[in-house]
Amino acid sequence: MLEVNGLTKSYGKLTAVSGVSFRADRGETIGLLGPNGAGKTTTVSIIAGLLRPDSGEVLIEGKRVQSDTDPVKLQIGIVPQDMALYEQLTAHDNLTFFAALYSLAGAKAKQAIDDALNLVALSDRAGDKVKTFSGGMKRRLNLAAALLHDPQILLLDEPTVGVDPQSRNAIFDNLETLKKRGKTLIYTTHYMEEAERLCDRIVIIDHGKMIANDTLQGLHKLLPVTNIIAIALDHPDGFKPEQILTLAEVKSAALEQDQGTLRVGVHDLSRGAPVVLRWLAENGHSYHHVSSEQPNLETVFLTLTGRSLRDSK
Amino acid sequence: MIPFLALIRKDLKLFFNDRKAVIVGLLVPILLASFFGYLFGGQGGNAETSKVPVLVIDQDGSDISRSLIAQLAGDKYLDVKPSTLDAAREAVRKGKATAAIVIPKDFGKDAGHALFSGANETGAGKPELGLLYDPSHNTELGMVKGILSGAVMQAVSKEMFTGRSGREVVDESLARVQNDTHLPAEDRKALRDLLGGVRELNERRDREGASGQTELSGGLTMPYETREEAITSGRDVQYNGYAHAFGGMGVQFILFMGLDVGIALLTLRQSGLWQRLRAAPLSRTMLLGSRTVSASVIAGFILLVLFSFARVVFGVRILGSFAGFVGVCAAFSLMTAAFGLMVAALGETVEATRGYAIMATLIMVMLGGAWVPTFVFPAWLRKLTVVVPTRWAMDGLDGMTWRGLGFSSAIVPIGVLLAFTLLFGAVAVMRFRWSTE
Predict the structure, then answer these.
(1) Torsion-angle region of A18 (φ positive above 0: left; ψ -120 to 50: alpha; else: beta)
(2) Out of B6, B17, B272, whose CB is closest to A88?
(3) Statement to judge: residues B259 and B147 lie in one domain
(4) Residue of B12, B268, B276, B277 to mutate for A, most A C-beta atoms under 10 A
(5) A142 with A37, same domain?
């Protein structure tokens, strides 16, 4: 459905995107994950035909976008990061206008507008001016505007920025509905929870370079550990985590000094946990809470780049 | 066609949806045009003008000086008040009076002598009238000097030919002529006849005045009067200053509208809306073309409202070719839209562009004669205005409204405005940055 091959784009000395490649099939959701300024929006802009790459190509159903009026563009719907709506117009007027950009008029346009408004649950506010909408409602209308011409590929550039959790969930529900309808979604975000919830495959981009492209499970396999045992020590002062690294089952160990929590990485939880707890007891380290957790995309990003996803620039 | 019309309809909807902005955008040019129209002649071109404040310091106290002051006070263009020298200097310095006329001691006697001999009694040349003036009012100064010349001639000649001091001067001059042995005999005879004739005339008028038969002469007056006729579209058609004012303000505010179109496009380029528009299968010609058409429609609407108001309230009529008027309006509207696109194409940031574009707009408006007529410009500047599109818009609008010219006179303005449209449009298309990078 969508093939992105070796995209590169530079602005002077700054390389915004360097060799990004991935493919997305019908009904698949691809997450472009990376910190702000990683090159996600540039990648989406190139796919939408807004930017011309220095090298590389984008193929939609095997075809490149040749011109501004290329019918291939009908296959794409874009939900820009910035709100792309006319605040002074009503929701219905906005959608009528955006439908007309794709030559939709009359009954076809009406049907498309009704469907889009129904999907995002804004039918009852169709006659209201957008400036009276909440942030979440605007985000939902922003999504609806991209669906009017029934595109096969939907480019979603951080579509939940600045919305409350309830609206975010509503948008997620809308996207899951679209996914079930077989739409291909390209979803950029720097929220790992969103990528984990929505995406079949995740492309991690940092400083314009693609550093991973895999399923969530595949990305987890990149990690040196698959489980972490979190142990709240009674007396963390003086505890040296490297002591526990002598155990064969233990792959990593770190002590969070402020909370006194020891985090021990193991491959096999059922074998590693008893060994670790016994070692602590034998060496006189008592504890009051034990839990296990799986590494998330934050951990993956940290492992791949040495930096935190949220703090990266 | 559906997208093209939708793009235009959307622009018009956005414009008319902001009702306050529309009302203010129409009200301001109407108010300014009404004000300027009143200043520049109003209906019939005979709006009341304010009188020039002039102070007079009479250090002479003669019949001539009193007569002179009376003459000046009677002039419809002057507001004459008596003053002292120090007070007058202070008033002129502070701008409370435009000029002050100082009539020095013995002015009357000396002026009388100077009328016949070109010098005063002692032969030391002509007497001087002091004229203190405010240098920021040079135009009025010329008028004051003209009025003063006429008044002095009338006051002095009247006194010389019919007044008491005039008779003394005639007697003295006659005696001097008779006793002047150096004077050629023929000249002496001629002067004696002239002065004797004046004395005889005065004696006869005294007799007739005593018997109430005739009034005394008013002295020398200007030997002509002017018959003024404003050349407009027809003999019975009066000049309407509001026509030019409404054209000027229309041009100015439509240019500002064009500027807004450019700034809005610059802002749009930085927004998600631009991404959405560019992602749609729309040609660049359609995106820029629709904006040109919508801006032209809005410009046409503004001109329509302004001239409709001027027609109803101030009686402004299109006395020339209506087709020419529509043509000039349409060409100017297109030029404005292209100007807006060029602003968007050349602009870097919204803030910087706004500053440069406002400056360019104001210069175009000023040089186009929308504020003040171009005849007040120096000659080199008048020549320069041919490269300013607004000058052609003003020429066209003036020609088709109060000048009452035919369509042929609109062809050149329309042609020049369309040429500017093409030029600005070409620059816009070549320099427009389509990418959002």
Answers:
(1) beta
(2) B17
(3) no
(4) B276
(5) yes
